[in-house]
Amino acid sequence: MEFITDLLQYMSNNSSMLISLTIEHIVMVIQAIGLALIVGIPLGILAAKVEKLAPVILSLVNILQLIPSLAMLAILLLYFGLGNETVVIGLFFYSLLPIVRNTYVGIKEVDPGVSEAGKGIGMTQLQLLLKVQFPLSIPFLMAGLRVAFVIAVAVATIAPYIGGGGLGREIVGGINAQNDIRLIAGAVPAALLALLADFILGIVEKRTKRRFRSVS
Amino acid sequence: MIQLKNVNKVYEDGFHALKNINLTFEEGKLNVLIGPSGCGKTTTMKLLNRLIDYTDGELTIDGKLISEINPIELRRQMGYVIQSIGLFPHMSIYDNVATVPKLLKWDKEKTRKKVDELLKMVDLDPDTYRDRFPHELSGGQQQRIGVIRALAAEPNIILMDEPFSALDPISREQLQDELVRLQKEINKTIIFVTHDMDEAIKIADQIILMRDGEVVQKGSPYELLTNPVNQFVEDFIGEDRLRQARGLPPMTAFVDEGYPSINVKYSMEEAITVMVEARKDQLPIVDCDNKYLGILSLYDAVKNREATIDSLVDESVIAYRETAEVEKFVASKETIAPIVHEDTTFIGVLDQDQLLNVLHEQVDQKSGVTS
Ligand SMILES: Nc1ncnc2c1ncn2[C@@H]1O[C@H](COP(=O)(O)OP(=O)(O)O)[C@@H](O)[C@H]1O
Ligand SMILES: [Mg+2]
């Protein structure tokens, strides 16, 4: 009980610092995910369209995700030095898999009859992709985005090991100082952030499903 | 007109799917490709909008080699309807139907009018259905949308691959009726794939029966039914339908061309002589061009020997065209059936003995008695 009142006391005393760390955390995550969308969607489409490239692209992003987060960040550190940019690049690599894979699956899952109809009535490959296949893959992409957010929010907490900011500051600081209160004061907002992202994107996903996959 | 000359298709895996296909699809006709599953119907159809390219031979549309027509433009000028319907689930009914007009960059007003007109044509109220999504429609309604989507840009040629086979029997019948009506109204060249013989007989101008990548027989439903070229065709059509089709042959089969007739200008005495000699009590009367005018009865003639033939001709006895169905006579109360060409030139009279024989045979067949 005493611990909780202490925690609340600490959090309210340091609220502005915690808020700015949270914002920093969110910014890193959003930058990374934005980057992952820009790179991942075309890669997913490419994999779906060029059957020969699919295994190459998919295993590559798979491997990226399998590298333990600390090891990944350590490697990136060698190339990009300390700082938030390096963190963003690391998070970007982690977010790539769910986005590439789900774009790929989403496009592959489009009813072949729908694609054939589009082609048969005279759409070009590009029109078919932009007007039919990509819109129909959006619910899958949304599911991927949701996973990517949750992963990125979690992984971003180790940012301080490579000189980054965000809520990890409090967590790592708390670990180093053996200060449970600081540790928890960083961990709670991070966990809430992950839950919130999961919840909001879950709603978005359902909406898009209704909008874009309104068949069943 | 679409023409296939010695067209072959060999798939990448070496499978010879079409063998020396020779076909003509005439303008404004409803052509049905039919045959067992895997015989090459879909392959043939997809050659026409270049979803598949043929291996060798020659395929022309209005004399132009199809390989020289841009496939995208070609497809926009051809309607395409498939069994799985393939409506775009994320687009409203309006956007679905308007797809090709939009690709062709029609102006909004024209597109809107066209979509409404098409919805009405298939009995869907535009105000109710325009903004709905495909999943909010029944299967039959969805397929109607599939059909009008293919018609939206007013193509001259429409390809339909088993469009009604996934529907319940009632919707299927309705859509078949609608298609036949539409075909009469808009007079398009339709290539229709099916494996259902009843459907083919009902809607086709030309039936093309295929097997193992070859055309076995082509012709009108009547030709296939009355003159199947081999056992396979007979089996595919089925014993029931063949027996039904054998029904009663048209009038021509029963014409008695030896039956006398007389020119209206002749005298009554001459007419009586002809009837007495031929032992007939009714005599068809014709004019100088041998066109049928009516019937003179021996009874009337004998009673009015002084009258002209002209004044005694019973014009109420109508003549039958040679192509008419015999059933019409059987159902009437007449005792004589004069038969004429399209232009009413007299040919002869229905031979009632022969008709009776055929009728007896039919009755025997139906009751299972073989003679
Ligand atoms: N892409 C393909 N590669 C190899 N064989 C194919 C291909 N598409 C169809 N076939 C074969 O060609 C034959 C004709 O197919 P299809 O035209 O679809 O028949 P259907 O008359 O049932 O429409 C079938 O035996 C089918 O297995
Ligand atoms: Mg087929």
Write structural notes for this entry.
The complex is a heterodimer of chains A (216) and B (371). Chain A has one domain: MetI-like (MetI-like fold, Orthogonal Bundle). Chain A is built from nine helices and no strands. Chain A has helices spanning 2-13, 15-49, 54-66, 69-80, 84-108, 112-120, 125-155, 168-176, 180-212. The longest helix of chain A is centred in the N-terminal third of the chain and has 35 residues, at 15-49. Chain B has 371 residues and is an alpha/beta fold. Chain B folds into two domains: 2-245, 3-Layer(aba) Sandwich (Rossmann fold), CATH 3.40.50; 251-358, CBS-domain (Roll). In chain B, the strands form four sheets. In chain B, strands 6-7-8-3-9-10 form a six-stranded mixed β-sheet, sandwiched between helices. The longest helix of chain B has 18 residues, at 169-186. The model of chain B has no long low-confidence stretch (mean pLDDT 90). The interface between A and B is medium-sized, with 24 and 28 residues. The structure holds adenosine-5'-diphosphate and magnesium ion. Magnesium ion is lined by residues 41-42, 161 of chain B.
* CATH topology-level name of chain A: MetI-like fold
**Tally of strands of chain A:** 0
Q: What small molecules does the structure contain?
A: adenosine-5'-diphosphate, magnesium ion
The appropriate CATH architecture of the largest domain in chain B is 3-Layer(aba) Sandwich
Give Rg of chain B in angstroms.
28 Å
Decide which structural class fits the backbone of chain B. alpha/beta
CATH architecture of chain A: Orthogonal Bundle
Strand percent estimate of chain B: 15-25%
The CATH topology of the largest domain in chain B turns out to be Rossmann fold
Query: CA-to-CA gap between the ends of chain A?
Result: 51 Å
CATH superfamily label of the largest domain in chain B: P-loop containing nucleotide triphosphate hydrolases
Tally the helices of chain A. 9
Q: How would you classify the quaternary structure?
A: heterodimer
Unreliable runs of chain A, pLDDT <50, ≥5 residues? Answer: none
| Spatial extent as radius of gyration of chain A | 20 Å
Largest sheet of chain A: none
Number of domains of chain A: 1
